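We treat protein structure as text, and this decision shapes the records that our systems exchange. We quote a single record here, exactly as it is kept in our systems:
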Amino acid sequence: MSGGLGYYALRDALLEPGCAVCRLKATAMARYLDSLLWENVNDPGIRRKIRQAQGFCQVHAWELVHRGASLAAALLMRDVLQNALKIVKEGCPRTLLDKPLRQTARELFYRQRHTLSDELVARLAPKARCPVCAQGEEMERIYLDTLVSQLLGKDGLLSAYETSDGLCLPHFLQALERVHEKEVLDALVKAQHQIWERLVEQLNEYIRKSDYRFCNEPWGDESDAWLRAIAAVAGARQESGQQ
């Protein structure tokens, strides 16, 4: 079986808690952000993409704060805001920007409001995805393709998958969409079914021990089953590049 960076990264990630693809996607996005802020903030091509995307999505915009790169964040946000100012200035007749607020409002409401607002919305709307999300989705695609293509065979990922926490439900669905061979489908579904069965058993035990009659029993692996169940159903929490 051919290796490759995707294979080895997946193999190692399957040894860690949680969905391996969620973990790798979060790592890829965190690395992209760090590289952007500390190495590539002045790259003209990257700055252009960020302007086209009107910055970042809400989650990744606030990730700038966690990385302590205030100067880089200031440069990027200034770029986006200056671009927005330019669009607004070019999109509004000069007379509207110069007139008193009351008169301007009256004209907008009675004569030009729809045309102006529609044009501004169209021009201010992002023309590209959040660049961090786009990077994460590209790496997500690579890792899912690798998992499906290298699940079986010599040195395949199946044994590591069977002992892992498997994929979260969203990534499991995406993996199923990539399967074209019955053997791979059977192996993937069987492994994920067993993983979910283990988790449900732990949830049952967590619920049982939450009953006052059994609350004095010591906690085991089931103590955080409810948190792992949320991640298994919805995917890992997006926060500071962590699971």
